[in-house]
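hey m, so remember when u said the tokens were messed up on ur end? i reran from scratch. heres the input so u can diff it against urs
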Amino acid sequence: MKLIIDERTGWEYELQGDYYYPTGRVQKNGVMTPSEPPEDDKPEEEKPVGIWAQRHLRHIRQYKKTLHLDLLTSGKLNVYLADLDEQADDLFLRLIKEMAATEGVTETLKAKDQMAWVQRMNNIRQRATEIVNRDLIYN
């Protein structure tokens, strides 16, 4: 294994076949240390992306290609999707809570008639899903 150090930058390179590849280490004050990528080349912040963001991503890939490419090339796609997912989830839970309170779907009903409670909650969840899809996901 042949290693060389670029005197101008301090980067270490390893000979592989006919080419020199950077090892990812840099020499500072005579000591080799792992290098850090420049600020612009650092990967975007990784946040979890849920079902709402996956639906929105599918939508912008198909119908809003310019927005998708802008977010992708700027490195902000994951952060954008994670924020949208959080907003959608908050809206969804708030809508369910408000609709259930308005329509009298309570724990008392659940204890009294479980099937009626399940039917009404499924109906509320479906309506809340449609509202979130309309307002945030497919707009």
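this time it looks ok to me. The mean pLDDT is 87. if urs says something different then somethings off w ur setup not the seq
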